[in-house]
């Protein structure tokens, strides 16, 4: 159960019928009379800030109201076959950037986070009978935790860097205060407490995640890990990172693929255009790597 973990993005939700991010943006702009704003080439976190700042100038909008509206919208996403197949994998930890709980499915979940986080998500976790789910960009049960704007991304990164590099000052007695990198070097106090730990201790398989360059929290984590492994010669980093992509996007997003390789991420290209079949092939590839029995 502890050989590998998954990092799952929003694309698996696109198999299910329902509202897309593009639809949601259109609805938000209509709701707050901002239909004149152009999406263009604006990075999404900056577009979110633009929508929020214009809405607050016009209507004195409370940000919680906006995030609650977004939370209610994405909560309507229905689980599909891929969600179920992911849950069937023999892995204990599933990390996700998604806000809703489609991955958890109908099973009852319990918030077992070591720290009560209202805004950021270093420790945010929910447990079911046999799985731990880490919602690293917030969750729908706590709308203020949903990570959307540049301000939130930067705050999240600050918390992450403190946890990894500087150490934490949480009052909770259950959290190790020393920096993760120090604990890894000393091989002390390595009990799993944050999803960040997994990026240094287990193989991570990344699927359904575009990893846009605006995801500064994840790109920093990849870069920091790679710098420690190669520049600082940290021999305690032995795990592997894998990124799955289609043949089409591997050819289009050459710059991203080059950056992933530089950051010690192995790219696995799946030649399949049908989305459901594509994810089934990814899960089959993961099982093959760890010599797990295939689906019947």
Label this structure with key terms.
eight-stranded mixed beta sheet; SIR2-like domain-containing protein; 296 residues; single chain; alpha/beta; 11 helices
Question: Can you offer a commentary on this structure?
Answer:
This protein has 296 residues and is α/β, with parallel strands linked by helices. It has 2 domains: 4-17 and 78-290, no CATH class; 19-76. 42% of the residues lie in helices and 12% in strands. The chain has 11 helices and 8 strands. The protein has helices at residues 21-31, 44-59, 63-74, 81-87, 150-166, 180-186, 195-201, 216-231, 247-252, 254-262, 275-289, and strands spanning 4-8, 93-96, 110-111, 125-127, 132-135, 203-207, 241-246, 265-270. An 8-stranded mixed β-sheet has the order 3-4-5-2-1-6-7-8, sandwiched between helices. Strand 6, helix 8 and strand 7 form a beta-alpha-beta unit. The longest helix has 17 residues, at 150-166. This is SIR2-like domain-containing protein.
Average pLDDT confidence is 93
User: How is the biggest beta sheet arranged?
Assistant: 8 strands, mixed
Helical percent range? 40-55%
Number of domains: 2
Shape: globular
Unreliable spans: none
What portion of residues belong to β-strands? Answer: 5-15%
What's the total number of strands? Answer: 8
Strand order of the largest sheet: 3-4-5-2-1-6-7-8
Roughly how many Å is the radius of gyration? 19 Å
Count the DSSP helices.
11
Terminal CA distance:
20 Å
Question: Order of helices and strands, N to C?
Answer: EHHHHEEEEHHHEHEHHEH
Q: From the helix content, strand content and strand pairing, which structural class follows?
A: alpha/beta
């Amino acid at each position: 159960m502890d050989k590998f973990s998954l990092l799952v993005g929003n694309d698996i939700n696109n198999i299910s019928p329902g509202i897309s991010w593009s639809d949601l943006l259109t609805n938000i702009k209509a709701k707050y009379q901002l239909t004149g704003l152009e999406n263009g080439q604006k990075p999404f976190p900056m577009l979110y800030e633009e929508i929020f700042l214009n809405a607050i100038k016009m209507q004195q909008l409370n940000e919680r109201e906006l995030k609650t509206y977004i939370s209610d919208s994405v909560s309507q996403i229905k689980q599909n076959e891929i969600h179920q197949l992911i849950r069937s994998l023999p892995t204990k930890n599933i990390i996700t950037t998604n806000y809703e709980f489609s991955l958890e499915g109908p099973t009852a979940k319990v918030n077992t986070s070591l720290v009560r986080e209202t805004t950021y998500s270093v420790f945010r976790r929910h447990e079911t009978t046999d799985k731990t789910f880490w919602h690293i960009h917030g969750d729908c049960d706590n709308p203020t935790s949903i990570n959307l704007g540049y301000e939130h991304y930067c705050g999240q990164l600050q918390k992450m860097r403190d946890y990894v590099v500087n150490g934490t000052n949480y009052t909770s007695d259950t959290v190790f205060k020393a920096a993760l990198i120090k604990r890894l070097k000393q091989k002390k106090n390595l009990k799993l407490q944050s999803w960040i730990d997994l990026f240094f201790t287990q193989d991570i398989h990344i699927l359904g995640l575009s990893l846009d360059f605006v995801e500064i929290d994840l790109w920093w984590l990849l870069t920091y890990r790679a710098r420690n492994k190669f520049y600082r010669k940290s021999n305690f980093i032995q795990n592997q990172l894998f990124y799955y992509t289609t043949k089409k996007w591997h050819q289009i997003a050459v710059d991203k693929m080059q950056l992933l390789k530089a950051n010690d991420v192995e790219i696995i290209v799946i030649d399949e255009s049908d989305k459901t079949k594509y994810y089934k092939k990814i899960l089959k590839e993961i099982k093959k790597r760890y010599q797990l029995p295939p689906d019947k």
